[in-house]
């Protein structure tokens, strides 16, 4: 294997491991359990948002030079900073990072060591996270070379054995709109949001290995993304199928954490608990390390060095430790409205960035505005807030049942803004301002 291919594989493995964290482990089996015989269509929807979007996000950010300012700045520089900060906080100390710590406790520690408190487990977990995250220059190599192989070995063992000898047969669960449900559930991985931040980390690591030209950096980052995406599809598909085979075995209402533990114990027997402890710890640790490093880098750059990377990383770890004690289910519930608002905007920005650089700023502004208006109403509806006539109108939009009510408004607003820009640009001069002959 030549140096370039080796660097691509290591970067791809690291990217896979950073993506594959708490949500990626617990949501596919839960979706399979919920869908039963409809698991295949749920899987396709989940692949779109859980695999396709993150990889496209990596490509879009690589095309933007790894800069979130360039990625979202076509809307406005202020929007780019506000959006970036919101995403960093969401996938950082407020939601995703604490979720990794909570998942390690509920799935990896509690079944084996019931006497360990959530706080003790969280403190230990984030101390290890800090050990890796305090040296950002070596994060990609450490994750790609050491943690990813452990993670893949354990998860692969569970999936291969579970697929070769299914624990049961999928049963009909009466789920409507399985494709749309899988699409929405893919939001919960938060990987499309994380991709626009992880891409910069991978791009920097590739540049540090001596690849100086933008073309080389973009090419290698995209190839690393494809490797990560392939791994995610294989793992997600396997875990979702395992959940479907258990759809007739476990009681309705079982929590996501208890479901994956029960499946693993059934598949691997007495060794299941230990294997799951190691798998969860590796999966969540890799994600926590990557996200913590991203938070530190973002706020150091945003403050122009006034906030030091090391200080931000330490504060993030402490804050995440405290939030993680609230548990996985509460963190997941709290995250849904935010994801309903943020995901469509990120999807639109990824699509427009990959579409081409010739699109005007007006198109970006219109598309984001259309997304934001509809997504806010969707989030309010999720929270059971009465949105009146406007909410009823949005619910009747095409594709609303599948979770895509924002698509046509985004296109409509983008076209309107572009027409306004074109009209203003070609507006004839007033007679009083025209030069005299």
Automatic annotation (TrEMBL):
GO cellular component: plasma membrane
Predominant cellular place of this UniProt entry's protein: membrane
Domain of life assignment: Bacteria
Membrane topology: Multi-pass membrane protein
Listed transmembrane segments: 7-26, 38-62, 74-96, 116-134, 146-167, 187-208, 220-242, 278-299, 311-328, 334-355, 362-383, 403-420
GO molecular function: L-isoleucine transmembrane transporter activity; L-leucine transmembrane transporter activity; L-valine transmembrane transporter activity
GO BP annotations, alphabetical order: isoleucine transport; L-leucine transport
Location(s), subcellular: Cell membrane
Keyword annotations: Amino-acid transport, Cell membrane, Membrane, Transmembrane, Transmembrane helix, Transport
InterPro entries: Brnchd-chn_aa_trnsp_Livcs (IPR004685)
NCBIfam families membership: livcs
Entry similarity comment: Belongs to the branched chain amino acid transporter family.
Protein name from the UniProt record: Branched-chain amino acid transport system ii carrier protein
């Amino acid at each position: 294997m030549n140096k370039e291919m080796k660097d691509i594989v290591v970067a791809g493995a690291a990217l896979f491991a950073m993506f594959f964290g708490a949500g990626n482990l617990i949501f596919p089996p839960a979706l399979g359990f919920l869908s039963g015989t409809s698991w295949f269509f749920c899987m396709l929807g989940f692949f779109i948002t859980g695999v396709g979007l993150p990889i496209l996000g990596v490509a879009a950010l690589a095309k933007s030079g790894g800069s979130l300012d360039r990625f979202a700045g076509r809307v406005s520089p202020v929007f780019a900073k506000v959006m970036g900060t919101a995403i960093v906080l969401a996938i950082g100390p407020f939601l995703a990072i604490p979720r990794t710590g909570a998942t390690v406790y509920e799935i990896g520690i509690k079944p084996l060591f019931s006497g360990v408190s959530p706080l003790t487990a969280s403190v230990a977990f984030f101390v290890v996270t800090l050990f890796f995250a305090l040296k950002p220059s070596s994060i990609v190599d450490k994750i790609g070379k050491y943690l990813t192989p452990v993670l893949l070995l354990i998860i692969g063992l569970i999936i291969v054995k579970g697929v070769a000898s299914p624990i049961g047969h999928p049963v009909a669960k009466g789920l409507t709109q399985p494709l749309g449900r899988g699409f929405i559930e893919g939001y919960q991985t938060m990987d499309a949001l994380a991709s626009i931040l992880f891409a910069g980390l991978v791009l920097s690591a590739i540049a540090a290995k001596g690849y100086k030209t933008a073309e080389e950096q973009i090419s290698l980052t995209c190839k690393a993304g494809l490797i990560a995406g392939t791994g995610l599809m294989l793992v997600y598909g396997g875990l979702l199928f395992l959940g479907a085979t258990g759809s007739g075995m476990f009681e309705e209402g079982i929590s996501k954490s208890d479901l994956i533990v029960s499946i693993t114990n059934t598949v691997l027997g007495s060794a299941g608990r230990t294997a799951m402890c190691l798998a969860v710890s590796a999966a969540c640790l890799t994600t926590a390390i990557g996200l913590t490093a991203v938070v530190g880098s973002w706020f150091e750059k945003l403050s122009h060095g006034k906030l030091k990377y090391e200080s931000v990383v330490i504060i993030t770890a402490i804050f995440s430790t405290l939030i993680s004690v609230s548990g996985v289910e509460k963190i997941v519930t709290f995250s849904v409205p935010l994801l309903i608002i943020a995901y469509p905007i990120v999807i639109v920005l990824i699509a427009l960035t990959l579409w081409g650089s010739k699109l005007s700023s007006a198109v970006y502004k219109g598309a984001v505005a259309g997304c934001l208006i509809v997504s806010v109403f969707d989030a309010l509806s999720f929270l059971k807030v009465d949105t009146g006539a406007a909410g009823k109108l949005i619910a009747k939009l095409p594709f609303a049942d599948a979770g895509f009510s924002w698509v046509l408004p985004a296109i409509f607003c983008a076209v309107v803004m572009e027409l306004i820009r074109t009209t203003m640009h070609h507006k004839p001069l007033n007679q009083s301002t025209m030069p005299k002959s």
